[in-house]
């Protein structure tokens, strides 16, 4: 993190296109300037002609230097185009993009101290009304609050100071700052009273009527003297009970959303992040300047809440990515990395999840020297839910090594899923028992039938005869027998292979898969796997896939010859 302890005092005088002015102290090194908060900007501008990553001011080798961060319409200083980095002198005028947009005047050193009253006076004059007396102290409060909000202090401290400044500007008695909770209600963050004293939110009874009006209208509700007002707020219970005379309720809206809405024809409804509420038992008279200061404080508070929310979302995203990465590592560790080649069969398989984790499963279990169990399954849905059901399937079918009957295992898993209505998952499954003689006892529970390669020809074989697991609790699972001949190969797959789509939303399909296999009838297990995956990848190039891809291939070599004595 850059050291800002020796950063000289400097600030930027921002002159908007409509003539409004504000001051922004340079509190970071480098100090980023741009549109909105997405690029970590310390000075956030709303002009759509300004890039999100526009410029930066860095303090290097004893001088402030202006740098271009990607302003699409260029940057000029005192009318000269910026080429590379340029040292800044106090009084230099920076223009981002076109001359009709925002102008920024750099102020630093002793000249800035001498010019500060004049700058404040400019701000006052630019926002003045005829006949009104201006309070420069209130502008100083705004400057202090802005500097505080851009500091690295804890959010509660920063927002508490902001409420203190708002109370001082309005000469109010107390103030509360709320944030929206996930359920759409308001949750108090800080509660303060006059004199910079912290109080518990429970000790205050703000006008719920005023807050409800501000939330509904998504704009400020300001009452200067309820005693003389005809507003319905005058009769509100909390107002009467506490003898309140003046109050302010300002909704805090997402600045990023407000900024994006400026560039759209139909603006989306503003998202309310929170509420700033102030009241007093004395009547008040808010000048135009004081109202603008309150709105400026509210915008800064909105920025703090918005940025805090973005930080929390980013942390949640990173935590979720880390947890998904761990889940992926565990799931991939559960799937077989390779198969020991048995005397009577060769086996190969591969799994490509479309997300970090998936619901496809395949495995091979040796039940003795002449008997092998194999399984391939596809859990409905994707992501963690499907992965958890997949792990349960693997745990149950690994029990086959303990001698359990496959029909009994399928019935048990089926009832288990059906009895737990919250699972909302079902699974297609092909389970087989192969012995050295080539006999296959299998259960196809709604799974796509495999391709059989026999004597150079390819056909669809071993169709489904049972329902998928998890659909009906009373479903029955019967074992069917099939006999393989030496040289036969079975190609099992999940529907992620046949339902892979191209950029025109056309599916790869069983026929294309069959054609690919027919072109390589005598290929090894490894070569066949390679050409199938390459064909699917080439077909779906550039299209997002929504399902996992899994292959399991079994080549029956033949019964081993008896050992010679």
Summarize the structure.
The chain is 31% helix and 27% strand.
Would you mind describing this structure in some detail?
This protein has 565 residues and is α+β, with helices and mostly antiparallel strands. It has 3 domains: 1-126, Sandwich (Tumour Suppressor Smad4), CATH 2.60.200.20; 135-329, Beta-Lactamase (2-Layer Sandwich), CATH 3.30.450.40; 335-556, PPM-type phosphatase domain (Phosphatase 2c, domain 1), CATH 3.60.40. 31% of the residues lie in helices and 27% in strands. It contains 12 helices and 27 strands. The chain has helices at 109-126, 136-149, 155-170, 208-217, 237-242, 255-262, 288-334, 383-397, 406-419, 495-498, 509-518, 525-539, and strands spanning 10-15, 21-25, 31-35, 43-45, 55-60, 63-68, 75-77, 80-81, 86-87, 93-96, 103-108, 174-180, 186-193, 197-198, 221-223, 246-253, 272-280, 345-352, 360-368, 371-379, 427-435, 439-445, 451-454, 457-460, 480-483, 489-493, 549-556. The strands form 5 sheets. The protein has a 6-stranded antiparallel β-sheet with strand order 2-1-11-10-7-8. A 6-stranded antiparallel β-sheet has the order 14-13-12-17-16-15, sandwiched between helices. The chain has a 5-stranded mixed β-sheet with strand order 4-3-5-6-9, with no helix packed on it. A hairpin with a 5-residue loop joins β1 and β2 (21-25). α3 (155-170) packs antiparallel against α7. The longest helix has 47 residues, at 288-334. The chain is elongated and about 105 Å long. The termini are far apart. The model is unreliable at 124-136 and 258-268 (pLDDT under 50).
């Amino acid at each position: 993190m850059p050291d800002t302890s020796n950063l000289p005092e400097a600030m930027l005088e921002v002159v908007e296109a409509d003539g409004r002015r504000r001051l922004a102290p340079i509190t970071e090194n480098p100090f980023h300037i741009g549109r909105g908060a997405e690029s970590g900007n310390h000075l956030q501008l709303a002009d759509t002609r300004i890039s999100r990553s526009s410029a930066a001011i860095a303090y290097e080798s004893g001088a402030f230097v202006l740098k271009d961060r990607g302003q699409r319409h260029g940057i000029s200083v005192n009318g000269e185009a910026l080429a590379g980095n340029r040292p800044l002198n106090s009084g230099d005028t920076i223009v981002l993009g076109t001359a009709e947009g925002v102008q920024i005047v750099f102020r630093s050193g002793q000249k800035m101290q001498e010019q500060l009253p004049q700058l404040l006076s400019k701000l006052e004059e630019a926002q003045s009304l005829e006949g009104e007396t201006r309070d420069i102290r209130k502008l100083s409060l705004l400057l202090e609050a802005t500097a505080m909000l851009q500091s690295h202090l804890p959010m509660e401290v920063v927002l508490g100071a902001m409420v203190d400044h708002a109370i001082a500007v309005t000469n109010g008695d107390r103030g509360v700052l709320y944030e929206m909770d996930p359920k759409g209600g308001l949750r108090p963050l800080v509660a303060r009273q006059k004199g910079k004293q912290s109080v518990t939110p429970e000790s205050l009874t703000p006008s719920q009527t005023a807050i409800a009006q501000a939330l509904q209208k998504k704009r400020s509700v300001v009452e200067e003297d309820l005693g003389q007002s005809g507003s319905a707020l005058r009769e509100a219970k909390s107002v009467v009970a506490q003898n309140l005379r003046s109050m302010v309720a300002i909704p805090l809206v997402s600045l990023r959303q407000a900024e994006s809405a400026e560039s759209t024809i139909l603006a989306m409804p503003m998202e309310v992040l929170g509420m700033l509420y102030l009241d007093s038992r004395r009547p008040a008279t808010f000048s135009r300047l004081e109202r603008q200061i309150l709105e400026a404080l509210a915008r800064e508070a909105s920025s703090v809440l918005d940025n805090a929310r973005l930080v929390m979302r980013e942390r949640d995203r990173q935590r979720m990515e880390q947890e998904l990465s761990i889940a992926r590592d565990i799931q991939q560790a559960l799937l077989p990395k390779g198969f020991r080649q048995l005397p009577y069969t060769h086996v190969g398989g591969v799994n490509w999840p479309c997300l970090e984790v998936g619901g496809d499963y395949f495995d091979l279990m040796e039940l003795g020297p002449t008997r092998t169990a194999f399984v391939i399954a596809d859990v409905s849905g994707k992501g963690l839910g499907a992965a958890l059901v997949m792990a349960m399937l693997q745990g149950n079918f690994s029990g086959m090594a303990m001698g359990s009957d496959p029909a009994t295992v399928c019935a048990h898993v089926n009832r288990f899923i059906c009895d737990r209505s919250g699972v909302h998952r079902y699974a297609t499954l092909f389970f087989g028992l192969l012995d050295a003689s080539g006999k296959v006892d299998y259960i196809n529970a709604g799974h796509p039938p495999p391709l059989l390669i026999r004597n150079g020809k390819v056909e669809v074989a071993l169709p489904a005869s049972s329902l998928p697991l998890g659909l009906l609790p009373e479903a029955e699972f019967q074992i069917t027998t099939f006999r393989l001949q030496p040289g036969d190969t079975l190609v099992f797959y999940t529907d992620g292979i046949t339902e892979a789509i191209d950029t025109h939303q056309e599916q790869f399909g069983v026929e294309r898969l069959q054609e690919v296999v027919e072109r390589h009838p005598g290929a090894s297990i490894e070569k066949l796997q390679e050409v199938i995956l390459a064909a699917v990848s080439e077909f779906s190039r550039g299209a997002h896939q929504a399902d996992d891809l899994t292959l399991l291939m079994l080549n029956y070599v033949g019964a081993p010859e008896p050992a010679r004595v």
